């Protein structure tokens, strides 16, 4: 709505018409919606591996353990995993994504099948999968394994990474660097809780 009001205001200024248009006040959301949980991530990975969908189990692990954007994750290669980090150029900037040792250990059987320069996120023909292809398949797997589809999309895992990171390490500045946020206030969004978490916290706290 505000974008449309801005467009109208700009046009009126261009046309020489004096007009004052008041913007619609927008309340900042104080909770997280459609967040994927740790149990859902573990259920998804376990189900994929059990069904022999190794390629997508690898993709989910990469999304959940790097905090990378899907456009970055699909470019990660075997040699990046061996090095422990990858430098990505995105939106005109270069940022470093660290790849934890635990990820390398979990992916070892899959990595043994690849050459150093091979990407890990592959389609059925062995070529680099597209971001759209990942999103489409994740929705299908979510429905197959009984996970709310709105919880299972590429960006949900970036959010999952941030939430789980802050549980282990409260260093918001480090997380901001890891996620490639130029403004730390963007990162602070991940400090918010889901509606269910907020309700549980209030119930636990209000005991008088």
What can you tell me about this protein's structure?
The chain is mainly alpha-helical. The chain has two domains: 1-30, no CATH class; 35-205, Orthogonal Bundle (hpI Integrase, Chain A). The chain has helices at 2-14, 38-50, 54-66, 70-73, 78-83, 101-111, 131-144, 154-168, 172-179, 184-188, 195-205; strands spanning 85-90, 93-98. It has a two-stranded antiparallel sheet.
How many beta strands in the DSSP annotation? 2
Q: What is the level-2 CATH architecture name of the largest domain?
A: Orthogonal Bundle
CATH superfamily of the largest domain: Intergrase catalytic core
User: DSSP helix count?
Assistant: 11
Low-confidence stretches: none
Features:
208 residues, mainly alpha, hpI Integrase, Chain A, 2 domains, two-stranded antiparallel sheet, globular
Topology:
Elements: H1 2-14, H2 38-50, H3 54-66, H4 70-73, H5 78-83, E1 85-90, E2 93-98, H6 101-111, H7 131-144, H8 154-168, H9 172-179, H10 184-188, H11 195-205
Antiparallel strand pairs: 1-2
Helix pairs in contact: 2-3, 3-8
Short recap of the structure:
This protein is mainly α and 208 residues long.
